[in-house]
# Entry
Amino acid sequence: MSTEDGERVGLRERKKQETRTALSWATIRLTVERGLDNVRVEDIAAEVGVSPRTFNNYFSSKAEAIADRHLERARRIAAELRARPATEPLWESITNAALAQFTLGQEAEKESTLEQRWLAGVRLMVTEPSLQGEFFKANAAAEAEFAAAIAERTGTDVARDLYPRLVAGTVGSAIAVTMEQWLRADPPVSIVPLLRDALRQIAAGLPIP
# Structure
C-alpha cells in the first residue's frame, strides 16, 4: 500500500470513528432530554446529519450506542497503558493511564459539554434497567481490553494465566466503584482524586483502614 493509499484509509477510519462518536453522544443527549422510549433512531440520525441506516451500521440498538462511550474510554485507557514507559512500575502505569483519560475530559470541557454528557450517560447506564444489559456487556469488553494490555505489559498469557485477568477485573471494579461514589457525592466532587485513591489502595494491597 502506498503512502497516499494509507492516508486515505486512515482518513476514512477517522471519519467513521467520528460518526460513531457523534451518534453515541446524540443518543445520550436525546435520551437525557426525552427519555429512552421517546427517542427514535430517526431522531438520532437527524441530529448527526446521517441516515437511520447509517446508525444501524454502527449500533444494533440505542442502548448499545449509549454504552459505547463507556467502552471507548476503557479502550483509550488500555491504549494509554500500552504507551507507558516499559520501566514504569505496573500499578503506576495503570494509575497514570486511567487518570489521563478522566483528567482529559475534565480539563477539556470542565463544567459543560463533553464531561457533563459523559456523566449523564453513566447515570443512564446505571439507573435505567433497559440499559444495564449493554452496560454489563461494555464492562466485560472493557475488562478484556485491560487484560490484553496487562498481559502484553507483564509477559503473561491472557488465555492461560490468571494474573492479567485478575488485574483487569480489579481495575474495572475500581473504576465502577469510583463512578458510583462520584455519582452519589453531595456536594459534587471531582472523579480524579477518587479514582487515584481507589487505585492507590489497590496497589497497596487494600490495607485495613
User: Anything to note?
Assistant: Residues 3-34 form the longest helix (32 residues). The chain has two domains: 1-59, 61-209.
